[in-house]
Every structure is written in structure tokens, then in C-alpha cells.
């Protein structure tokens, strides 16, 4: 800080004194602003390309940004990895912002909290967004993960006479209603020349109940998603009729509130970019990711390794090519009666938004 000491003569004209004081105030303001700008350029420890814009001063940060950003996540997902990696906390700390991490049991509960104003940002599956929009909730899609079609599938018992999707006609299939694997089942049945209701769905509340009814052979087939899909594959050695490849991209989306994206588009951009930094670290350090998620989820390491190894982590900005399959999902949900009316997902999926991230290669 510059030390400004003024030794004034006893007698000054009023005009001269006013001029001198104004000049000193201007010099002091310039010095303070310069100190604030230097802090902004400091990179976070261990995170590449994580500097904040040099044009933002400390006074602007305090004035324009919230003190806390509230993020909702589920154990085992990409925001869990981001939290553990710590680079977002470091990046926002430079702006005088702390991160409040809130864990939720499902994507649906993340969106409930988001639309109720309890959090500012979170991620959830593709179907969760469609259900929330159909329920009249207000939110915005701000980005998404890379596709993970191999992370879901339809399985039958190893000794089952069912060999193809077409053989499922008239059989019992366990799914969580509206889940990504439920959607996969509908698409696979229709491609095989059947109708969505040509099977008897047994709707279960979660992956554990789905496994239980499958393991005790109360159903003929099970739809599931990673890491639970991997767990069943390893433990029970079923026959996998299909995964999601060539059916559905199985994306997880990042969501925020209209208020937050309107007020702080640059913060949304930062969160997406830092998520991509953590994702690229995850791709290069999968053994560490396996260890982290094994501890977080309490699932055996082999199952977590299977799920992690068949996935590529990364962030994408919303594009028309991403909107199209999401609209197909919404249309399918309406057609089979999962939502009461048609929705236009593009209304909540802006392209080239001001928070569009600059993603490293």
C-alpha cells in the first residue's frame, strides 16, 4: 500500500487545499485498484488455466458476486470429483467466494432444491430435467457431461431362455420409472418391432430394490445404470442384452436457476470450466478416481473400476446436436404417458449463452 503523508503549511487558500486533497484521493484510489487487480491473476495451486479475469478489481468482486455459491451434487458423479479435486474452491476463493457443497440422494431431489431456491447450481440426469420442466419448474440447462451410453443396460439371468430384446415380449422387466434405463428399454423394444407396453414393467424405487427382485428371480430382466449396472454384472454374471450404445447418449446435464445465470453468467462459465479441468484430471488419473468413488459410495472397487474405465469424463456446451436427443427423450416420455403434456426443451437450453465455457483440449 502506498504511504501518502501530507505536510501542509499553516496557511492555504481554500481552492488550493481542495485541489491538493482531490489529487491525493485520486492517487490513493489508483494504488488500491492496482493492488486488487494483481490478486486476481494468481493461479490456483495445482490447477491449469484457472486464473480470474484481470479486469475485475477486488471492490468489483465484493460488489458484484455473492459470498457463497451453493452447489448440489450426488455421490459418485462429476461434481463429486470436482469437490474432491478442490480446483473450483480455489478458483472462486480468488474472487472472495466460498462454495457450499450440498449432497442429495438423486437428480430429482437436486432439481427440487434448485427450483425451490435452496441451491444455485447442480447436475442431474437427462430425464430429471424433462420431468422438472413438465412439472412447470423454472431452471436453465447450462452444460452437460460427455455421453455415457455404455453406462446403462438391460440384463437377463445367465440361464434365461431370453436371448434378444424381442424375446422380452410378455416378460417382467424391473426399472426405476422414468430412469435412463427405462428410456433405453422403450427404445430397444420399439427398434425390435415391439410396443413399449409389450412387457410388464415392475417399477422399483431404486437400484438396490431392482437388484433384489432380479437376484430373487421375481422379474425376467433388469434395467440399471452405473455403478449399479457394473455391480450386477460382476456379482451376478447376467447376460447383457444391450447397453445404451446406438440408442441414447445418456448425458448428465448441469442446471442452474434463471436468476443465477442472469446475474452471474461469468460464475457459471467458471464452474463449467473448472469442472472440465477436474474431468481431464479424472481421465488421466482413473485409479485415483476409483479410490475416491469407492470410498464415497461404499461399493466394491472392482465394480467402480468397471464403471470408471468405460467412461470418458468431460464437459460440453449446449448445442443443437445435444438438444435433439433430449427432445426425443421428452417426446417419448409424453408418448408413453410419463409426462402429462409435450414440452419444448429448447426453451430451457440456450445455445451460445454468455456462460459458454472455453474448454481446453
TrEMBL record:
Keywords: Signal, Transport. Residues 38-61 are annotated as: Disordered. Residues 44-60 have a biased composition (Low complexity). Residues 1-33 form the signal peptide. InterPro entries: ABC_SsuA_sub-bd, Solute-binding_3/MltF_N, SsuA/THI5. It holds the Pfam family NMT1. Residues 68-285 form the Solute-binding protein family 3/N-terminal domain. It comes from the Bacteria. The keyword Aminoacyl-tRNA synthetase does not apply. The keyword Calcium does not apply. Belongs to the bacterial solute-binding protein SsuA/TauA family. This is Sulfonate ABC transporter substrate-binding protein. It comes from Paenibacillus cisolokensis.
Amino acid at each position: 500500500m502506498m504511504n501518502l503523508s501530507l505536510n501542509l503549511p499553516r496557511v492555504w487558500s481554500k481552492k488550493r487545499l481542495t485541489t491538493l486533497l482531490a489529487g491525493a484521493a485520486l492517487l490513493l484510489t489508483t494504488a488500491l485498484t492496482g493492488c486488487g487487480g494483481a490478486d486476481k491473476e494468481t493461479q490456483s495451486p495445482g490447477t491449469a488455466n484457472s486464473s480470474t479475469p484481470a479486469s475485475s478489481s477486488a471492490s468489483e468482486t465484493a460488489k458484484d458476486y455473492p459470498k457463497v455459491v451453493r452447489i448440489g451434487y450426488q455421490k459418485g458423479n462429476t461434481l463429486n470429483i470436482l469437490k474432491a479435486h478442490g480446483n473450483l474452491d480455489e478458483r472462486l476463493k480468488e474472487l472472495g467466494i466460498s462454495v457450499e457443497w450440498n449432497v442429495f440422494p438423486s437428480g430429482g431431489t437436486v432439481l427440487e432444491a434448485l427450483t425451490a431456491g435452496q441451491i444455485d447450481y447442480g447436475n442431474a440426469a437427462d430425464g430429471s430435467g424433462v420431468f422438472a420442466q413438465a412439472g412447470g419448474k423454472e431452471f436453465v440447462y447450462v452444460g452437460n457431461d460427455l455421453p455415457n451410453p455404455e453406462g446403462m443396460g438391460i440384463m437377463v439371468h445367465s440361464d434365461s431362455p431370453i436371448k434378444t430384446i424381442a424375446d422380452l415380449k410378455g416378460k417382467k422387466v424391473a426399472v426405476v420409472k422414468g430412469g435412463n434405463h427405462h428410456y433405453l428399454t422403450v427404445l430397444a423394444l420399439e427398434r425390435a418391432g415391439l410396443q413399449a407396453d409389450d412387457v410388464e414393467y415392475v417399477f422399483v424405487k431404486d437400484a438396490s430394490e431392482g437388484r433384489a427382485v432380479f437376484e430373487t428371480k421375481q422379474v425376467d430382466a433388469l434395467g440399471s445404470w452405473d455403478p449399479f449396472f457394473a455391480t450386477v454384472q460382476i456379482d451376478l454374471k447376467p447376460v447383457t442384452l444391450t447397453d445404451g450404445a446406438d440408442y441414447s447418449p445418456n448425458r448428465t446435464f448441469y442446471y442452474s436457476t434463471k436468476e443465477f445465470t442472469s446475474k452471474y453468467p461469468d460464475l457459471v462459465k467458471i464452474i463449467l470450466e473448472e469442472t472440465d479441468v477436474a474431468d481431464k484430471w479424472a481421465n488421466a488419473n482413473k485409479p485415483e478416481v476409483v479410490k475416491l468413488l469407492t470410498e464415497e459410495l461404499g461399493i466394491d472397487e472392482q465394480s467402480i473400476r468397471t464403471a470408471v474405465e468405460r467412461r470418458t469424463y468431460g464437459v460440453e456446451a449446449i448445442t443443437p446436436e445435444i438438444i435433439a436427443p433430449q427432445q426425443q427423450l421428452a417426446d417419448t416420455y409424453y408418448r408413453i404417458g410419463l409426462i402429462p403434456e409435450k414440452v419444448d426443451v429448447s426453451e430451457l437450453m440456450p445455445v451460445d449463452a454468455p456462460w459458454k465455457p472455453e474448454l481446453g483440449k
